Amino acid sequence: MKRILNDPVDYVVEMIGGLIAAHPNHFCRIPSTTRGLKHVDSPVNGKVGIVTGGGSGHLPLFLGYVGPGLLDAVAIGNVFSSPPAEEIMLAAKSVDSGNGVFFLFGNYAGDVMNFDMAAEMLQSMGIQSSTSVVHDDVASSPREERENRRGVAGLLFAYKVAGAKAASMASLEEVKAAADKAIHNTRSVGVALSPCTIPEVGRPSFELGEDEMELGMGIHGEPGIERTALGTADEIASAMMGKLLADIELDERDEVAVLVNGLGATPLEELYILFRKVGSTLADRRIRINRAFLGEYATSMEMAGASISVLKLDPELKKLLNAPYYSPLLLQPPKECPYVE
Amino acid sequence: MKRILNDPVDYVVEMIGGLIAAHPNHFCRIPSTTRGLKHVDSPVNGKVGIVTGGGSGHLPLFLGYVGPGLLDAVAIGNVFSSPPAEEIMLAAKSVDSGNGVFFLFGNYAGDVMNFDMAAEMLQSMGIQSSTSVVHDDVASSPREERENRRGVAGLLFAYKVAGAKAASMASLEEVKAAADKAIHNTRSVGVALSPCTIPEVGRPSFELGEDEMELGMGIHGEPGIERTALGTADEIASAMMGKLLADIELDERDEVAVLVNGLGATPLEELYILFRKVGSTLADRRIRINRAFLGEYATSMEMAGASISVLKLDPELKKLLNAPYYSPLLLQPPKECPYVE
After folding, report:
1. pTM of the entire structure?
2. What's the CATH code of the domain at A244?
């Protein structure tokens, strides 16, 4: 794997340097942190501050979700590594306006531990916080153990819903309740076609044969459900939609948001080819798509593959999902799809 | 190279099918074409229609530039192949509101020929058109033969400026004049780290050694300026900026827009690392960056590499560049950078 890179040791710090140089009216550094960024206008008076974090190597996740209608601050770690608790605490402190801080992140052991420690530090400083953990990856644990599942691209929906709720000046409890509903209603599944390489390691994180794919593989190369021969786009979409629809109850006329996410190297053309079958599968079941998000929302550097996420909507979630948001690292929001009976 | 694909023969048609299914409130098919799309609200009364086209395999180029403040219609061909003249003509006809059609596309022989033929057909039908060809790639011909250069990611700036001018209800002559100024003031250069594979061919379009890169390589794998050992990010940025700054006169306090574009497989992290040095190179010369665009704006499927484009601004170009635009395939517009003396 060839990269545009200086010293691999400086990968994260230089990436942050570039981000701030490119978008000085959007991001600023959080004092005393090395890898903490916040939105230039945060904290916003009266608003709950939302903070996330996780490993590097997933852009636009996590830093790219900072912005109006989204998150206030992010602490990141090395590639595929959790940020330290101290930096999470400083990120939270920097965006607390006295209305409390909401931690929202994906379910990985290191992140859970460090965010918990940060919450304890905040408590001792008199800053109120609450936490929700996103666990949308159906491949990583059976349905009965949903809370053990990993967090993947479905984070988009949780961020979007929580961000819009906080922007409406809702209380910490209300923001958490909205996020929890989004988490409860989100399912994702991924397929990997090729590995990625951690810059400091220099060799692929796993191996896949020339004609193989792995259904359900995680965004760090965690094992999935099954390794099979590479299928056609329609076969891949059917297998993925089968896993999703078996895991969440969707009835005729239910409305969903759909995300077809590229893992890094997979061209946008292929995501649209995949979406054809995703859309027709839902249409066959008379499930309505309210909005379709396609593009790179959570990546694994140069991994080839895709994930599909579904969010089951109710009137509140629909309103929050469709509220405005801004980040220069995110695609322009898709328009609402016309309702076809 | 592994792809999410059905029959390679159906690559383009299925991609378009997915695009329309995902964004039915944005794109619609142009009657009697197989690969022509227009914006649902085009033609707009009183507005010049802008039409582009080119080969497939470059998303978000070309289809992704259809939208308010941008283009009205696009005709695309097979992967890396020109669209037929007939489809270009039909695309133009479908968005003419009686104020004429402006053709704006990249300089490739097949496209030039087919757009010329389309313009002749339109003329015989009494529809007025004019044409500008984007030739921003400094690597493809010497400065004295600028008009022979290829069109690459600098198309973003030409589309953006022409689209904003047309949205202001300017005349066909005025739209062309604004686009020509943007073309005159734009320079790009690319670097390729790995090839891509045309689905119907099934093998890489060129080969690059494990430690090689090619400076100035085109977005279809056309030969560049030199093939060298893979440099560091800072070395790559310096070499690229050297080529750009030698080709356009930029003085202290001049203002530019910059685009650091990913060719497909290169992660966003690496574009930001590259931008660090791009930004500091310009700052050293006291050249001001008005806006920095980073992400995928013109790709070569899964090619690894990047391009840098610079647009020299004047007050009119700045105003047009910063006007609003919308497409679900494009990133949210970057904010204006604060002016630092």
Report:
1. 0.97
2. 3.30.1180.20
Domain that holds residue A255: 186-321
| One domain, residues B233 and B179 | no
Whether residues A337 and B19 touch (CB distance < 8 A) is answered with no
Contacting residues of B for A200, CB less than 8 Å apart: none
Whether residue A2 is contained in a domain is answered as no
Chain B, 126-145: which have a CB under 8 Å from a chain A CB? none
Q: At which of A156, A183, A210 does a domain end?
A: A183
Instruction: Tell whether A178 and A55 lie within a shared domain.
Output: yes
Here the tokens at position B250 are 């930029």
Token pair, residue A147, equals 């809370």
Contacts of A194 in chain B (CB under 8 A): 2
What was the pLDDT predicted at A202? 87
Q: Domain total for chain A?
A: 2
- Asked if B329 has any chain A CB less than 8 Å from its own CB, the reply is yes
Is A26 catalytic? The answer is no
Which residues of B are known catalytic residues?
58, 220
Sequence-ordered list of residues with C-beta below 8 angstroms from that of B341, at least 6 positions apart, any chain:
none
pLDDT tens digits for A85-111? 999 999 999 999 999 999 999 999 999
How many C-beta atoms lie closer than 10 Å to residue B31's C-beta?
Answer: 10
- Is A72 in the same domain as A146? yes
Mutation for testing the B interface, residue in A3, A4, A25, A212 having most B CBs under 10 Å: A4
A173 and A204 together in one domain: no
| Beta pairing class for B101-106 and B73-79 | unpaired
The residue whose two tokens read 């191996």 is A207
Residue A141 shares a structural domain with residue A25: yes
Q: Is A257 on the interface with B (CB under 8 A)?
A: no
Burial B257-269 (b: 16+ CB within 10 A, else e): bbbbbbbbbbbbb
User: Quick check: is A329 in a domain?
Assistant: no
Average pLDDT over residues B1-30: 96
Q: What is the mean pLDDT of each run of 10 residues along chain A (341 residues)?
A: 93 97 97 97 98 98 98 97 98 98 98 98 98 97 95 98 98 98 98 92 88 94 92 98 97 96 97 98 97 98 96 98 98 89 58
A170 and A221 in one domain? no
Chain B nearest C-alpha distance from A116 (Å): 28
Return the structure tokens found at A201: 């390691």
Q: Within this chain, do residues B225 and B275 fall inside the same structural domain, yes or no?
A: yes
A132 inside domain:
yes
In the block, which residue shows the tokens 């022509």? B36
Find the closest chain B residue to A195 by CA distance. B2
What residues does B309 pair with on adjacent strands?
A: B188, B259
* 3-class secondary structure, B197: strand
What letter does residue B65 receive in the DSSP assignment?
G
Q: Is the ipTM of this structure higher than 0.95?
A: yes
Instruction: Summarize pLDDT for B259-318 with one digit per residue, the tens.
Output: 999 999 999 999 999 999 999 999 999 999 999 999 999 999 999 999 999 999 999 999
Q: Which residues of B touch A267 (CB under 8 A)?
A: 57, 59, 264, 299, 301-302
**Which domain CATH number covers B144?**
3.40.50.10440
B5 lies in some domain = no
Predicted pLDDT at B210: 87
